[in-house]
Amino acid sequence: MAIRKKLVLLIVAVSVPVFFLATFMQNWGASVAEKNLQDASTQVRIVKKQYASAQAHCPAIIRKLQTGLPELQQKKSTPSVMRSYWLMADCQTAMRRHSDAANSYAQLVMLEPQAARWHGQRAESLLNAGRLSEAARASRLSVQLKPDDFRWRLQEARILSKIGRFDAAVHAYEVALKLAPLEQVNGVADEFNQLQKMLGNAEYDLHAQQYGRI
Predict the structure, then answer these.
(1) Which pLDDT value is given to residue 25?
(2) One Pfam family from the UniProt entry (predicted)?
(3) pTM score, two decimals?
């Protein structure tokens, strides 16, 4: 019994420091990841403005963010995880790596599926990547989640026009024009005019005037 007791005490004596060391390492790793995230926020804001700057700096920024993700996920720091994917998407967009950006936005969609903006921004990346059918589906989701948001209505109209769903595009433009801020009405009406003209609609000018006030 004495030997067993000593063995138990020895195991406890070894386990407790190991536990505290593991906890310390986990917290330290998460702290480093948070610090890298803060640094990346500042860096991305600067480098994303120019393609050459993004090409030079974004790969290293993305690698750091990716390295820190497991620590942030283990800590269950969802806002920091989301911020990491958002910054990666910003960098990938600035580098014109649109499919990669769409993948980052897909992660944000999984984390916050009811947020229209992630579906909308993913649709924009898919559109820029030439993945039009996927862009149309993502755009539809953003509109369903936030039907009164002008940005997503206009985006849907443009995507529908690109994939040749012209009747649906006409309807989407009509809705977008009703929601458009006053300073953007004329620009959207011009797009709508061009679509109607391409479709051979003789009434396109009057039709646009109904919404565009031009």
Answers:
(1) 44
(2) TPR_8
(3) 0.79
Q: Which domains can be identified in the chain, with CATH numbers?
A: 56-211 (1.25.40.10)
Residue 201's pLDDT is 74
DSSP letters, the chain, are -HHHHHHHHHHHHHHHHHHHHHHHHHHHHHHHHHHHHHHHHHHHHHHTTSHHHHHHHHHHHHHHHHHHHHHHHHTT-HHHHHHHHHHHHHHHHHTT-HHHHHHHHHHHHHHSTT-HHHHHHHHHHHHHTT-HHHHHHHHHHHHHH-TT-HHHHHHHHHHHHHTT-HHHHHHHHHHHHHHS-HHHHHHHHHHHHHHHHHTT-TTHHHHHHHHH--
In angstroms, rounded to a whole number, what is the distance separating the alpha carbons of residues 176 and 149? 9
